Amino acid sequence: MSRSYSPDEPLDADDERILAEIGRLALLVDPVPVDLADRSLFAMTLAALETEVMTLELVPEPTGVRAETAPTQARTITFTSTSRTVMITVAPGIDGVRIDGWIAPTGEVDIELHRPHGEVLTTRTDDDGRFAFDAVAPGPASLVARPEDGPAVSTPVIEL
């Protein structure tokens, strides 16, 4: 004889067995990313900086360029806000990636590279607004620009 079920009944052993099997299948088909908690905490930490968040604009790579050597796979990214524009080029380096950047308006600005686990690398732009970070490990990162004469601005998190 078959039993009828009602959604108002409390869960029983059969329900828990079925839910456990559904959970096992979900983990098998779509596992939780290993670094999800770290990435979430990193994003929340950046949000807590209370800076103006810049908009990301990918710059298309040129096509049809001839070279004697293989391409380096550099990518150029521009971030804009109402008060600043930051353009960076991310290229493979010897010990990670190299970031070359420029900020406008120019002048000396403190630049922070925020990484998961609270790691922050810092540099300062030159008078022309240029800055660089050498040998940065690949992974998620965000830049924060702290000018002396205005509000700080932050880029969204990008994958280096």
Automatic annotation (TrEMBL):
User: What SUPFAM superfamilies has UniProt attached to this entry?
Assistant: Cna protein B-type domain (SSF49478)
**Which branch of life, at top level?**
Bacteria
Record protein name field: Carboxypeptidase family protein
